[in-house]
Each structure stands twice: as C-alpha cells, then as structure tokens.
Amino acid sequence: MIEFVMLLGVLGGWFISIITLVIMLVFGKMAGLLGIFLLVLGIELNKFLKKNYMDAVVSNSPRAKEIARHIFEMNELMLLSSYAASLFLYEVIQKYVEIVINVPAG
Q1: pLDDT tens digit string along 36-91?
Q2: Cα three-residue angle 82-87-91, rounded to 5 degrees
Q3: 82 in a domain, yes or no?
Q4: Which domain holds residue 23?
Q5: Residue 103 domain-assigned?
Q6: How many angstroms separate the CA atoms of 69 and 63, rounded?
Q7: Among 7, 37, 69, 86, whose CB has the most other CB atoms within 10 angstroms?
Q8: Are 32 and 23 spatial neighbours (Cβ–Cβ below 8 Å)?
Q9: Any domain includes 102
Q10: Spatial contact of 91 and 33, defined as CB atoms under 8 Å apart
Q11: Cα-to-chain-centroid distance, residue 76
Q12: pTM of the predicted model as reported, rounded to 2 decimal places
C-alpha cells in the first residue's frame, strides 16, 4: 500500500509539472497560475489520503505511523518542487527560444 502512496506522489508531481509547463507555453506565463490550482488540489488529495491511510491501514506501531507520515510529507514536497521545476523549465525554454531566434545561424 505504501508503494502505491509513493507512486501517487511521483505521478502527481509529474502531472502538475507537465500540465503547468504546457499551460504556460501555450497561454503565457500568467496562465501558469492555473498550476497553483492543480498544486492545491494535489496537496489536498494527499492530506485526504494521509488521513484515511493513517486511520485505517497503518498498524498501531509508532514506527510504522512515523514512516507513513514522512512518506506523505515527502509527497507534498514532491508536488511543491514539481511546480517550481515547471517554472524553471519555462524560463529555460523561453531563453532557448530567444537565443535561437535572435542569433542568426552561421
């Protein structure tokens, strides 16, 4: 079950990063604010899963609860860093396009 939780964090991070980057490239940098909506949605989903997981599945051992809590916190960090990565990639892509267009070949 915990592997599923980690997989959700990784896939959620990629989803937020790619969707935010595509939105910004197509509609402009300010449209990237829609990515914040996805970010908040992902974090709230993570909190919901954390509450359900901690209440239902995790055994009574304090060590297992502590590990599960850290994994859910790691998922939130992955979601936040994926949004930051999409902003960084947007800037890199814009600079690359600017250099290729402005500097003549040859």
Answers
A1: 898 899 899 889 988 888 776 656 677 777 888 888 888 899 988 998 999 999 99
A2: 140
A3: yes
A4: 2-97
A5: no
A6: 10
A7: 86
A8: yes
A9: no
A10: no
A11: 8
A12: 0.77
Cα Rg, the chain, nearest whole Å: 18
Place of tokens 């989803």: 15
Structural domain count, the chain:
1
On whether residue 105 sits in a domain, the answer given is no
Q: How confident is the model at residue 7 (pLDDT cuts 50, 70, 90)?
A: confident
Say which residue the tokens 């990063």 belong to. Answer: 17
pLDDT score for 12: 86
d(CA 6, CA 4): 5
Tokens describing residue 95:
């600079």
Which position has the token pair 């990629």?
A: 14
In one-letter notation, the amino acid at residue 93 is I
- Are 35 and 18 within 8 A, CB to CB? no
